[in-house]
């Protein structure tokens, strides 16, 4: 009995550590994005979390999403703040239509580059 309870607790702790590890990696990516973009951390975090919600993504996706934003802002004539403004208008609709954040960013970059 005690052995099975300990095993169950170990599994719960292991699950929590995995979730914590993903969360910390996401926070680190958001901090790196804020530093690279010159935006303050609060604004950058709001952009990422609002977009995650609009696309129906989990908090564990924040690291990947921050990396995608960093790549998009580096390769287009835009910045993270302007991408955030674009997401305010487009992300809820695109998310409900099943359009991925990556596909939306491709279209935003094209628009930014070619008008």
Q: What characteristics describe this protein?
A:
single chain; 115 residues; mainly alpha; 5 helices; globular; disordered N terminus
Entry summary:
The protein is mostly helical and 115 residues long. It is built from 5 helices and no strands.
Structure description:
- With 115 residues, the protein is mainly alpha-helical.
- The protein has one domain.
- Helix content is 83%, strand content 0%.
- It contains 5 helices and no strands.
- It has helices at 2-37, 41-54, 62-74, 80-97, 101-114.
- Helix 1 (2-37) packs across helix 2 and helix 1 (2-37) runs parallel beside helix 3.
- The longest helix is centred in the N-terminal third of the chain and has 36 residues, at 2-37.
- Mean pLDDT is 79; it is low at 1-16.
Contiguous runs where pLDDT drops below 50 for at least 5 residues: 1-16
The share of residues in extended strands comes to: under 5%
Domain module count:
1
- Structural class assignment: mainly alpha
- What's the tally of helices? 5
Helix content: over 70%
SSE order, one letter for each helix or strand? HHHHH
Q: How many angstroms does the end-to-end distance come to? A: 67 Å
Shape: globular
Sheet with the most strands? none
What does the radius of gyration come to?
Answer: 17 Å
**How confident overall, as mean pLDDT?**
79
- Count of strand segments: 0
